[in-house]
Automatic annotation (TrEMBL):
Organism the protein comes from: Bradyrhizobium lablabi
KW Lyase (keyword) present: yes
Phylogenetic placement of the source organism: Bacteria, Pseudomonadati, Pseudomonadota, Alphaproteobacteria, Hyphomicrobiales
GO MF annotation terms: 2-C-methyl-D-erythritol 2,4-cyclodiphosphate synthase activity; 2-C-methyl-D-erythritol 4-phosphate cytidylyltransferase activity; metal ion binding
Protein name per its UniProtKB record: Bifunctional enzyme IspD/IspF
NCBIfam families: ispD, ispF, PRK09382.1
Gene from which this protein is expressed: ispDF
Length: 393
């Protein structure tokens, strides 16, 4: 059940990430086939208790940002500042008009935040007003002087590693940032430190060791290997669908309304391209077919938009901890001509599924005037889906 308080999230993505090595800002580099920032942002965009996600970006990165997070819902990006603190302040000011009760502040370089950590952050902020996720320190820590000599060995039982998302009552943390800006304080490395300076008591809640920040090239190498091992069950499914023509003035093809002299005879909107893709994904999951999940005999699906079916199939993959690696659909028809619409269709499928458009292929062929497609009695489509799942026996 949704919480009564309104929660927004700020995704801090304005940094340069120079320690991560070559390849541009680390938040836009790919990890396991997806941009780091997409992974970091997706969990908040899909969380049922987060109503708004506010990205804070470097203005020079606008094109990279738009390409990296295509398909995710978010507020219009706001420009970051010279420091992380200034960027968070900009994000808070951008959200002020939305009047959230709670705000979660997360680093775009932490791509493995879980829905459970987000839920714990919201609960903690609601209880305490200011809270950070934290994990225990397992190694012995040494405090050293300028020459590298050990000065002290802190009690690790009292030490914690702070993570993000850090969670606050919105009005309280906004006021703290405004005070710091007025006082010329710009040296806080995280929002908890700023909150402590402002006199707030900051609580901790259970973090997640997997919710690590990517900082060095070695971090990327390690996480690539971990992801590959986790999603080692690579599966392929195929799909096929066909619909006859009837009366009408348009066709729905791959999620795009295409003007035509005929319409489809179908229980739903008759989108053969999306239907074939749904069957391909369900086939890769060994999870039945489109008819078993959306039976034509059920009146609730009469005239339904097929993007609902495709989103459902994608959610079935996500629910099993998997990812879609590639989608391909081939339209078989004499008319309408698919070539001029190919990239529009690819973009629409990418939007529905949340995939990068580079992972979506749309092709077309005729049947050389043979058979029902050659006689222009209908349209057929074939599809293929490649997915990656966690390995299980």
């Amino acid at each position: 059940m949704p919480r009564p308080e309104r929660t927004a999230a700020i995704l801090v993505a304005a940094g340069r990430g120079l320690r991560a090595g070559a390849g541009g800002p680390k938040q836009y580099r790919e990890l396991g086939g997806q941009p780091v920032i997409f992974r970091a942002m997706e969990a908040f965009c899909r969380h049922p208790d987060v109503f708004a996600v506010q990205p804070v970006v470097n203005p020079d990165d606008a094109a990279m940002f738009n390409a990296a997070v295509a398909g995710l819902r978010h507020q219009p990006p706001t420009n970051g500042g010279a420091t992380r603190q200034a960027s968070v302040h900009a994000g808070l000011e951008a959200l002020a008009a939305e009047k959230p009760d709670i705000v979660l502040i997360h680093d775009a370089a932490r791509p493995f935040v879980s829905s459970a950590v987000i839920s714990r952050a919201i609960d903690a902020a609601g209880r305490t007003g200011a809270a950070v996720p934290a994990t225990s320190v397992t190694d012995t820590i040494k405090q050293v002087n300028d020459t590298g000599d050990v000065e002290a060995t802190p009690d690790r039982a009292r030490l914690r590693i702070a993570q993000t998302p850090q969670a606050f009552r919105f009005d309280v943390i906004l006021d703290a940032h405004r005070r710091a800006a007025r006082d010329g304080r710009s040296d806080f490395t995280d929002d908890a430190a700023l909150a402590e300076w402002a006199g707030l008591t900051v609580a901790t809640f259970e973090g997640d060791p997997a919710n690590m920040k990517l900082t060095t090239p070695e971090d990327f190498v390690r996480e690539e290997a971990r992801l590959a091992a986790q999603l080692g069950d690579i599966r392929t499914g195929t799909g096929y669908d066909v619909h006859a023509f009837g009366d009408g003035d348009h066709l729905m093809l791959c999620g795009v309304r295409v003007p035509h002299t005929r319409g489809f005879l179908a229980h739903s909107d008759g989108d053969v391209g999306l239907h074939a893709l749904v069957d391909a994904i369900l086939g890769a999951l060994a999870d039945g077919d489109i008819g078993s999940h959306f039976p034509p005999s059920d009146p609730q699906w009469k005239g339904a938009a097929s993007d609902k079916f495709l989103k459902y199939a994608v959610d079935r993959v996500t629910a099993r901890g998997g990812r879609i690696a590639n989608l391909e659909v081939t339209m078989i028809c004499e008319r309408p001509k698919i070539g001029p619409l190919r990239d529009v269709m690819r973009a629409r499928i990418a939007e529905i599924t949340g995939l990068n458009i580079s992972r979506v292929a749309v092709k077309a062929t005729t049947s050389e005037r043979l058979g029902f497609t050659g006689r222009e009695e209908g349209i057929a489509a074939t599809a293929c889906a490649t997915i990656r799942l966690p390995w299980s026996e």
